[in-house]
Specification:
heterodimer, B: 6-stranded parallel sheet, 15 strands
Amino acid sequence: MSEDEHKVEYTTVSIPKPLADKVKERMKGTGFSSVSSYVTYVLRQVLSSIESEEKSTQAFTKDEEDKVKQRLRDLGYID
Amino acid sequence: MIQPHGKNLINKELPKMEKDKILGEIDEYFKIEVNAQITKVIKNIAFGVFSPLEGFMDSNNYHYVLKDMYLENNVAWPFPIVLDATEAEIHEFGVDDSIILICETGQPLATMNISDIYNFDKKEFAQIVYGTLDKNHPGVESVYSMKEKLIGGEIFLLNEPAPIFPKLDLKPMETRVLFKQKKWDKVVAFQTRNPPHLGHEYIQKAGLTYVDGLFINPVIGKKKVGDFKDEVIIESYQALINEYFPKDRVVLSTFETEMRYAGPKEAIFHAIARKNYGCDHIIIGRDHAGVGDYYGPYDAHDIFDKFPDLGIEPIKFRSFSKCSKCDAVVNDKICPHPPEMQNYFAGRDIRAALLAGKPPDTEVMRPEVAEVILRYENPFVE
């Protein structure tokens, strides 16, 4: 496989032009180099905030938790 | 409690039946011997310290991470976690094969399902991760000494490598249960590779003031010559906690990993690992994980601004010092007095005192901590 085939992939998302203009305005002096990098940052922030409100899909079973507690007792971390 | 990075805590332990089957047929597998650093990586992947990683990166993730500091699945990750192999080794297997990774003593550690075998550019790797090609940088030197190829794929643990400090070896699942048991909802992590001086104690206690618990998590593993030995760090922290911390507010546990000295990127890596342990804050000091003058003193603070979705929050400390006028440990935000009134806990001065067999000034280091260090004829890595 050539090195070129490993390039990070991007896709195009359309947003209304006035919104893009507003983003360009807001970007001034922020260090963001393009509307795309600004939008990527904002989307990551929004998604992270939504996901952090969701409950973790993973919980320990009672049996797992009891085993862990016993080990923590053996190590002296809990009484 | 904070979710693991990427939402799920990874566990790559094999059920006993499958493990026994593989171990019974072990002669049929091709084996690659891995060094002590990779052994630690395997353990960290297997027990979820490196969640969401489930193995060594394939070329797609390698390039995504180098380019963007995000994995292909859009989870933040600062630098590649890779396994190198020689040309001769990769002639013995191909994509979709399973191989066995063994440690230096010959013990089988894990199976690895090979999903990719690829070339990489050492200069590109070193330049992007460490920001330099200078071979005096320990991270760069270690990239240049890697084998020619990289292999990617999921791993499954066969045997857990023996911990260096068995009584302090907690896995993320265990710390999460421990924090829950202690009713700690908010936990601040403190990363360290040094015995504590009063400045460290100050920022640990400042961080702890605003949360429920403090997780002191020294890095144990390969370090550069002149760093403190692992046992010195551990024993000095035990002495400090015994005398100066409320026991129900502090947990000391080891993080077995090599120091890469990747400065800001390593600060992100340290934060992700501590998030997986269940911490929602991490203390980031001046020149975190830096070496020499390769990074700016606050690069490791600024990099967090690029990750709005990291989850774990950095508590950023700039310089801290003992001010003779305030007669207290202070930082540059809270003390108006000039530098000539400040003792900056210079590592050079602390080392000089210790090398001369003398305890550092009690304004700099607790006598109990100094006593532990001075018990060692040579407390430094040779």
